[in-house]
Specification:
This protein has 243 residues and is of the alpha/beta class. The protein folds into two domains: 1-30, no CATH class; 32-241, 3-Layer(aba) Sandwich (Rossmann fold). Helix 4 (88-107) packs across helix 6. It is globular, with a radius of gyration of 18 Å. Helices cover 40% and strands 14% of the residues. The strands form two sheets. The chain has a four-stranded parallel beta sheet, with helices on both faces. Strands 3-4 form a two-stranded antiparallel ribbon. The structure holds zinc ion (2 copies).
C-alpha cells in the first residue's frame, strides 16, 4: 500500500516529497550514521584509528564497511527486516550502503570484489525464518549497483555453508561467542576451486562482535580466496556488543 498512497515517512509520518523514498530526509539525517570508526573492523570510535582489539590481533578480513551504528532506530528497522523481508526501509538503507561501498573502494583505489556471498544461515534457522535477510540485502545491493552505477555484482550462495547451529548469540558473552563461532563455516573442495585467488565481499545485516565475520573470512581465505571484505548495514559498538 505504501507505493499506492501519497507517501508518508514510515518513521515520522510526515509527508514525503516526490524524490524521497519511505524515510524522509530529516529522519534520514537523524539516523545514527557511523562517522569515526576503526579502520579495520569499523567499530564506532571517537576518532578514525585502529581499535584496541584490532591492535591486539588483526581480523582475517581486510576491512569492514558499515553505514550505521547499531542503535535506535536502526536496531528496530533491522529487527523488522527479520520478520518482513520486503520492508521498504531496507531498500533505502541498502542504497546508502552502496554509496559508502563506492566511496570506500574509490578512496583506497581498489577494485570491487569479484563475488558477493550473503552471510549464510544454518539450515535450521533458514527453515525457521524462511529467508536469509543477508541474501535480500545482497540482492537489493546488486540491483542498485546495476541500475545506478552500471556495475554487475555476482552473488553466490552455494560456496560456503554454515555448519554449526549455535545458541542465540546474544545469550553468550564475547569470549563464548568467539569460541562458539570457530569452525562454524565450511567450504567444499569444489567451491574452493571457484574461490581460488578471488576477492570476496561477505554481506551481513549487522556485525556485532566481528567474530562471525572473522570466522567466515578465515574459512574463505583457507579455501583459497585472496581477500575478504565485509559489507554490512550496521556495526555494534563495544558498549552494547557484549549484552
Ligand atoms: Zn520522517
Ligand atoms: Zn577494530
Amino acid at each position: 500500500m505504501h507505493h499506492l498512497l501519497p507517501g508518508r515517512c514510515t518513521m515520522c509520518c510526515g509527508s514525503l516529497i516526490k524524490q524521497e523514498k519511505c524515510i524522509c530526509q530529516s529522519c534520514i539525517k537523524e539516523l545514527p550514521w557511523l562517522t569515526t570508526q576503526c579502520q579495520r573492523c569499523s567499530v564506532p570510535l571517537t576518532a578514525d584509528a585502529l581499535c584496541a582489539n584490532c591492535q591486539l590481533e588483526l581480523p582475517t578480513y581486510r576491512r569492514c564497511i558499515a553505514v550505521f551504528s547499531y542503535q535506535a532506530p536502526i536496531d528496530t528497522i533491522i529487527l523488522h527486516l527479520k520478520n518482513d523481508p520486503y520492508a521498504a526501509e531496507i531498500k533505502q538503507l541498502t542504497e546508502h550502503l552502496v554509496e559508502r561501498i563506492i566511496l570506500s573502494y574509490h578512496q583506497t583505489h581498489t577494485p570491487y570484489p569479484q563475488l558477493v556471498i550473503p552471510m549464510p544461515l544454518h539450515w535450521k534457522k533458514m527453515t525457521q525464518r524462511g529467508f536469509n535477510q543477508s541474501h535480500i540485502i545482497s540482492r537489493l545491493l546488486a540491483d542498485h549497483f546495476l541500475l545506478e552505477h552500471k556495475t554487475a555484482i555476482s552473488i553466490r550462495t552455494d560456496l560456503c555453508q554454515r555448519v554449526t547451529h549455535n545458541p542465540a548469540q546474544h545469550t553468550l558473552d564475547k569470549i563464548q561467542r568467539s569460541k562458539s563461532i570457530k569452525n562454524a563455516f565450511a567450504v567444499t573442495a569444489q567451491a574452493a576451486t571457484t574461490l581460488k585467488g578471488l576477492s570476496i565481499a561477505v554481506v551481513d545485516d549487522v556485525v556485532t562482535t566481528g567474530a562471525t565475520a572473522n570466522a567466515i573470512s578465515g574459512a574463505l581465505l583457507n579455501a583459497g580466496a585472496n581477500q575478504v571484505d565485509i559489507w554490512c548495514l550496521a556495526r555494534t559498538s563495544w558498549n552494547t556488543s557484549s549484552q
